[in-house]
Amino acid sequence: MGFESFCNALRQRVFPLDFPGHFVGGEWIQDQKPEILQGSFNPSRGEPIVKVLVSRKIVEKSVDLADQAQNELAQLGLDKRIEVLTRLRQMLTDFQVHFIDALCIEAGKPRWEAESDFLSSLQQLDAILGERGNIQNALLAAARIANPETDFELRANGVAIAFIPFSTPLATFVQCLSGALIAGTPVLLMPSSHAVLTGALFANLLSNLELPKGAVSVLFGNYQTFTKTLSDRRIQAVIYSGSREHCDAIRRDHSSPLGRQLLLQSGGKNAVIVEKSADVKQAVQCVLYGLIKNSGQLNTSTSRCFIHDSMVEAFKKEMIRSVRALQIGPTDGEGNPHLGPLYAQKAVDKFLRYQTMAKREAKETWVWGKVYDTGTSGHYVMPGVHFFEQVEASSSYQTNVLMCPDLAVYRYADVEQAIAACNQTDAALVTSLVGPEDIVRTWSAGLRSPNVLINLPTVGLDVNPPLAGRKLCGDYRWNGLAIALLLTYPQSCRVLDGERSSFPAWPALD
Predict the structure, then answer these.
(1) 388-396, long-range: CB < 8 A, 24+ apart
(2) What is the DSSP letter of 481?
(3) Less CB within 10 Å around the terminal CB: N or C of the chain?
(4) Partners of 450 in the beta sheet?
(5) According to the model, what pLDDT value does residue 501 have?
(6) Interval 496-509 mean pLDDT
(7) 363 — alpha (psi -120 to 50), left (phi > 0) or beta?
(8) What is the DSSP string of 280-298?
């Protein structure tokens, strides 16, 4: 299927599509004897979108070409690599409608969310391009502090591979490609088998960027395909966003090659703390937005909320009203609901198990999470909201990262109680503080979360937080373009000052 035919079929919703192939070495290729993966399904209707066909031969070819492209990509120079991002930004806008449609159909995002995600990807590129003259100085600032007379350059570590999750496919593409190009690092981008539409669109843009052959390839696969590829020791940087179990397995099984950099990110146990004088309606909106964006399947989704004793009843009333007012439905058509489907039936089953656990442990269930009937065979649920007197560290439900639209609400008498409860988790990623800024800003010093947002939901106004996770939810500190630091090593070069002796400390020789 040609790209134009692919776009026409996408626009007309003619599914299932023929698999377009893998973008390797600047061309679309397929193997004659591939392995057939489960592929992508429309979560709004449970219907197949496209099967994924992959083979070990294609994966090996992509690594070979990436390895060969290292010198040519480095010689392209930083200015020219940044210019590639300028062209990418323009092409993204040319295909805006297609990308937004793909996010609505395949990722189950309501149109308002898909449009927001697309805009945030452009803003990410705009921020990079706006600082193009300062990027290298900023990235090397720490090395230069005590070495003002030394020149530094960023040198690529080797080949990188990045897994593209279904929940944030476009933003992750942009972040990983930007970081790799700034670093001068060849990269294999592997979209999840649930992100084929976005992956195919992005690969087509790459075909027009005039990059060295093999510098960027797009391979479609799943977690198993991804981890099999990691056995190749030429891959020196691994970028993965997914479940904690998958991150633990990669950390355990694939960290041995000397110098390999692991950039692993899983979901955080993200919380909102509401100050007692905060506007209740605004607080509920902030919590609910973080709960339902991408159906609670983001690393930054809200799963806990701490409210002052004095506002429990008012918060409860407004939360129940707001959840029941949600419009839930398909995202693949003209509708624009608040909440779309979960990505698969197994996610619904997991959500329902958590509802049973919460019902058993909670003091009171405000909204019972359940399957929601839209008249289609998609994977819809009504969010669950449960009230607890205190956090139980031994509770599997209360301590696990759920990755679904479910909220545990707790009361506090003193804010130090809420801060201590937030800090109990080893998966702190984002904490939102709601209330007067001059009051809640002082709370951030006591929080262990690397990302603190004030009067914003935990999902913020973007799909990626400024900083990556710690401990159970991440293996590195930087996010955004700063991942270029993790794909490189700094190389120093110092030149003799002609006005000084080569060996000023030596006594004079006779």
Answers:
(1) 388/361, 388/362, 388/363, 389/363, 390/421, 391/421, 391/424, 392/361, 393/424, 395/357, 395/361, 396/357
(2) G
(3) C
(4) none
(5) 59
(6) 69
(7) alpha
(8) HHHHHHHHHHHHHGGGG-S
Judge if the upstream peptide bond of residue 16 is cis by omega within 30 degrees of 0.
yes
Cα-Cα end-to-end distance for the chain: 81
Domain with CATH 3.40.309.10 in the chain: 270-454
Q: Where in the chain is the domain with CATH 3.40.605.10?
A: 3-266+474-492
Task: In whole angstroms, give the CA distance from residue 171 to residue 114.
Answer: 11
Radius of gyration of the chain (CA): 24
Question: Which class would CATH give 270-454?
Answer: alpha beta
Q: Bigger pLDDT: 480 or 346?
A: 346
Residue pLDDT, tens place only, 183-242: 999 999 999 989 999 999 999 999 999 899 999 999 999 999 999 999 999 999 999 999
- Domain 3-266+474-492 sits in CATH 3.40.50.720: no
CA distance 112 to 462: 13
**HSE value, Cβ hemisphere, 13 Å, CA-based, for 152:** 20
Model confidence pLDDT, tens digit, residues 260-310 = 899 999 999 999 999 999 999 999 999 999 999 999 999 999 999 999 999
- Judge contact between 154 and 484, C-beta under 8 A: yes
- In whole angstroms, what is the distance from residue 369 CA to residue 357 CA? 11
Structure-token match 């992005």, residue found: 202
* Complete DSSP assignment for 436-457: -HHHHGGGGGG---SEEEESS-
Q: Percentage of the chain with pLDDT > 90?
A: 76
